[in-house]
Amino acid sequence: MLSPVTLESWLKRQRSVVDEVTGPVKRIIDTVRKGGDEALRDLTREFDKISPDSLAVSTREIQEAYEQVQKPVIEALVAAKSRISSFHALQKEKDLWLSSSDPGITLGVLSTPLSRIGMYVPGGRASYSSTVLMAAIPAKIAGVPEICCCTPPPIHPLTLVALDIAGVSEIYRVGGAQAIAAMAYGTGSINEVEKIVGPGNVYVTAAKMMVRDVVEIDFPAGPSEIAIVADSSARPDFIAADIIAQSEHDPKAASVLVTPDENLALQTSDAIRQMVSSRPRETIIREALSHSGYIITRDLDHAMEVANAIAPEHLEIQVTDPMAILLKSKNAGSIFIGPYAPVACGDYATGTNHILPTAGHAKIFSGLNVSHFCKRSTVQILTREGLDRIGDLVELLADAEGLHAHADSVRIRR
Q: How far apart are the C-alpha atoms of 167 and 148, rounded to whole Å?
């Protein structure tokens, strides 16, 4: 069920996933730019087989959604919101901090929230109510006043309930690359945003990367992936369960086991074979497994080198002494330590964010957090004493660069 793969083939696959859909996604973006709302309706009929009367979701629809969701599930969403909020509140910076190391010179940073952001919530194959919380809560904590959400129709009642719990009332039944284009360029019904966040399939990810010339994005986020670094102490059935869980996201999801123990890899493959046939989303899982695999390494140090090269969205470390190698991890979206820390816990309830960079982008991006929704302006306050303290330095360097008016702007004050 799991086949051996090489690091080189894995990295090549990461690079090629988005490239495969570049042409179709560009055509969708151009169609939305030119056609606005009418183009969105046409694309929704084409891709989602639905003809919406209104792109916007009404307050009444949100209220009715509560009647279709069981009370324990609603309570679970509220509990998850509390845990996610608590963790992300720790990330909130001061609105303004100032420090004075020299007489007459005070420096600092002013942090201000973005004015309007767009969040994409996947749909279709499942209800991603947890993604709603992951996208909206850090934006709310940052102080973003306007949040709009696009999600494919038909919208699951659980998603609408989660949006209401998260405090998002501007909701549009638009999915795919067309939703990203709508939030980036505006369409009439949907006003353009300053930043787009949230995971999606390969089309959504490609669209986010293509609109970066007009709108900020969080990072490429999708399709989902996991790398598991394990030794002989790990349980094959635990690893198999985590790989299957990752595989049920998307046919293009990918999982890789990195281990010095070939016997563990073979046992895990057998466990997957025994477990997969009983899963409701078996077809999706099997397709994802077809491009998953395992890599045999010399030792655990080599395994961590491989993991860093992959830079996975999720990294599980299931070894005898995980803390001994944790600090060797340099590139990973989110790290799960020990046999009792499956990715699913981070997806829903630990409080960390599950919107994470994929396809090797964890080498340069961090997972979604409060700082993604803030801008920082440096502040300097100078008195006459402070200006005199650095005036000679400024004048000398400005004159040396040939920017004499810069130097004169200091001289005139002295």
A: 10
